[in-house]
């Protein structure tokens, strides 16, 4: 990882000589910024382009527009209208048509409202989620099956199907993947 070395005014003032030290800063600093080095300025998600989507549906929501990103944070609000609890799952896809094996990311309580927040790393499928409803709160760490190509779609499903209303917000992160 490159080290961020902030510019010094005396090196960048008008008529200051171009030195190898300054040249090294110009060489290393963009890399350090891209790598998120300590002390380096942060790149706004707005610079990444398309970053936030919102959806709602009953039973299943498919999040799209994720190609070229390295991961995503997904917030889910749900209302389960039957007395029994159900599993909430995610499935990853590189084309929005065929999806990999489902991974359980939360248990949705019966007759309750709740929230699930998850972070998914597209390179590894590593998923960490937290959830809470009127009956329970917990976390789940699971590895979702990844497709051969770049992840472009995620299907979020509450196993209760027509009994669970979902509202989903996705925030693509980790910038553009080369």
Describe this structure in words.
The chain is mainly beta and 178 residues long. It has 2 domains: 34 residues, no CATH class; 129 residues, Exo-inulinase, domain 1 (Jelly Rolls). It is 11% helix and 46% strand. The chain contains 2 helices and 10 strands. The strands form 2 sheets. A 6-stranded antiparallel beta sheet has the order 1-10-3-6-7-8, with no helix packed on it. A hairpin with a 4-residue loop joins β6 and β7. The protein is elongated. The model has no long low-confidence stretch (mean pLDDT 85).
| Broad shape | elongated
Per the CATH scheme, the topology name of the largest domain is: Jelly Rolls
> How is the largest sheet built, in terms of strand order?
1-10-3-6-7-8
For the largest beta-sheet, the strand count, sense and barrel status come to: 6 strands, antiparallel
Which series of helices and strands comes N to C?
Answer: HHEEEEEEEEEE
What is the name of the CATH class of the largest domain? Answer: Mainly Beta
The CATH superfamily name of the largest domain is Exo-inulinase, domain 1
| Helical content band | 10-25%
Number of strands: 10
Strand residue content: over 45%
Count of DSSP H/I helices: 2
The structural class is: mainly beta
């Amino acid at each position: 990882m490159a080290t961020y070395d902030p510019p010094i005014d005396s090196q960048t003032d008008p008529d200051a000589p171009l030195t190898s030290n300054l040249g090294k800063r110009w060489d290393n600093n963009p890399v350090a910024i891209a790598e998120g080095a300590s002390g380096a300025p942060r790149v706004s998600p707005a610079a990444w382009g398309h970053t936030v989507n919102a959806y709602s549906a009953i039973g299943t929501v498919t999040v799209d527009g994720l190609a070229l990103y390295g991961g995503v944070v997904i917030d889910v609000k749900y209302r389960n209208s039957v007395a029994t609890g159900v599993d909430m799952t995610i499935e990853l896809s590189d084309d929005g048509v065929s999806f990999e094996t489902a991974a359980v990311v939360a248990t949705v309580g019966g007759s309750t409202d709740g929230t699930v927040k998850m972070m998914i790393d597209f390179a590894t499928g590593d998923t960490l989620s937290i959830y809470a409803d009127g009956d329970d709160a917990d976390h789940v760490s699971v590895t979702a099956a990844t497709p051969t190509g770049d992840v472009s779609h995620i299907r979020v499903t509450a196993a209760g199907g027509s009994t669970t209303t979902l509202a989903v917000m996705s925030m693509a992160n980790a910038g553009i993947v080369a």
